[in-house]
Each structure stands twice: as structure tokens, then as C-alpha cells.
Design a protein that fits this description.
transmembrane; 2 strands; mainly alpha; single chain; about 45% helix
Length: about 170
């Protein structure tokens, strides 16, 4: 009777839950809680190297959508409160505090645009794609759809080539 040949070692599948605590900042954090996704977003403000897990990416996207929605609703409320309508032309003038809400939205956008791009690039690295593919967002309509589909894909272990450990 022959003994079966030893099989190749099982490859590391990064989509598995973290078991050894919080990974270093240069490594992707799989199954990251909301708090970790939020803090890693800000700590890696303009870091385009490395990878970001699906949970890091999508939990931040949810936070960003919620904050942007709240700021948008606040802007709308401030525009409607104190607004006037010209009875002769029917034109509407927003309330005096509209600029405050619009300013807050602008500050939020300016504060998050660079880290959002870097997070998207790191997410592409996690699926073993070049970060330059993020420029597909510049193609009207279809580009953002392509990035959306890519961001949903599971991690590819070959994406570890983008990791740059500090030690």
C-alpha cells in the first residue's frame, strides 16, 4: 500500500477572522470593528501603500455616507429656515444660515477626500490590483461602477505584495 503524497501547505486566506488581536497598521485588518475602521482611516490619512480589507473599506464608507447625509440634511434645514419666496417671480432665497451648512459640507469633503482616495487605493491592493485603477472613477458613470464591483471582491492573497512592514 502506498502512502499519499504530502499535499502543499494551505495558503493563507486573509478573509479569515483575525485571531491574534489587532494587526499592525501596515497590515489589513480583516473583520475590523467600526471603531478600528474609523481610527485606521484617519491614522493612514495619506498612506497609499499597503492594503485595506473589505470591512475597513465598507465600514468607513457607511460612516462617511451617514455623516454626509446628516450634514446634507442640516444644510437643507438651514436653507429652508428663514428662506423667502419672491411673490412676483416665484424665486426662492435660502435662509441666512445656509452658508454655514454648505461650509460644513465643504470642510468635511476637504478633510476626507485624500484619505478616501488612499483607502480606495489600498482596497484595490487587497484584491491584487494596481492602485492606479482608482483613476477609473474619472470615467463618467461606468468608472465608479467598476470601482464599486472591484471593492466588493474578496481579498486575494497575492495582494500581500503591496504590504510594506516597518520591521
Amino acid at each position: 500500500m502506498t502512502t499519499p503524497a504530502p499535499s502543499a501547505p494551505t495558503p493563507y486566506i486573509p478573509a479569515e477572522p483575525q485571531t491574534a488581536g489587532v494587526p499592525p497598521l501596515w497590515a489589513p485588518y480583516y473583520n475590523a470593528p467600526f471603531s478600528a475602521a474609523f481610527t485606521r482611516f484617519w491614522k493612514k490619512y495619506a498612506t497609499f501603500a499597503g492594503r485595506a480589507s473589505r470591512s475597513e473599506y465598507w465600514k468607513w464608507v457607511l460612516v462617511q455616507v451617514l455623516i454626509t447625509t446628516v450634514l446634507g440634511l442640516l444644510t437643507l434645514f438651514l436653507a429652508l429656515s428663514g428662506s423667502t419666496i419672491d411673490t412676483t417671480t416665484g424665486a426662492s432665497t435660502p435662509g441666512p444660515l445656509f452658508g454655514l451648512g454648505f461650509g460644513l459640507l465643504g470642510i468635511w469633503y476637504i478633510a476626507t477626500v485624500i484619505p478616501s482616495i488612499s483607502l480606495g487605493v489600498r482596497r484595490l491592493h487587497d484584491i491584487n490590483q494596481s492602485g492606479w485603477m482608482y483613476l477609473l472613477n474619472l470615467i463618467p458613470s461606468i468608472g465608479s461602477l467598476i470601482i464599486l464591483v472591484l471593492a466588493v471582491l474578496p481579498a486575494d492573497p497575492r495582494g500581500a505584495r503591496f504590504d510594506q512592514p516597518n520591521s
